[in-house]
Model the fold of this input.
Amino acid sequence: MKKQMLFIHSAGPQNLQEGSGPLVHSLMRALQDEYEIRCPTMPAPEHPQYMIWKEQLTKEWAAMAGEVILVGHSLGGSVLLKYLSEEPCPLPVSALLLIATPFWGAPDWEIEEYALQKNFAARLPVIPYLFLYQSKDDEVVPVDHLSYYAQELPRARIRLLEGYGHTYQAGLPELVDDLKSINHEKRVAH
Done:
């Protein structure tokens, strides 16, 4: 039986060539034998609002059962963290993988709508595997945002990368490797 993955995309245009599209499709190609990947189009991605995205996430949770792996790209990662730290978690989350996730509240990123509560990390459900990915050459989310998350989430595995920019047009092989490593660790543990 395939594992469930829920991928929440970035803000902005979403298609095969823009936004999270190329990244999602590379993950689908690389993981199609092991994962059922759900990547809903979030409402009004070019003018996102947290409350509307939260409602869509609630609908996505309701359509799934059992353990889930969550992947968030850019704003999608922010929305997942906010949701998980403020709402009851309806399903067990076996892994959370966040890619180029802005830290709202950092200088020049003060947008209250997406900001996390103080001590948000303490409010997260138990998540056995937590990964943070950030490319040094990201032209949208400054690399120092990774430092904010590393401080708040000290048990997260940090992947500081080079050459991916913000959109990961050619995919993210490190994420694929991490997922395969998680699967191997789980098989060995059983």
The longest helix spans residues 173-189. The mean pLDDT is 94. Helices lie at 21-31, 50-62, 75-86, 120-123, 144-152, 173-189.
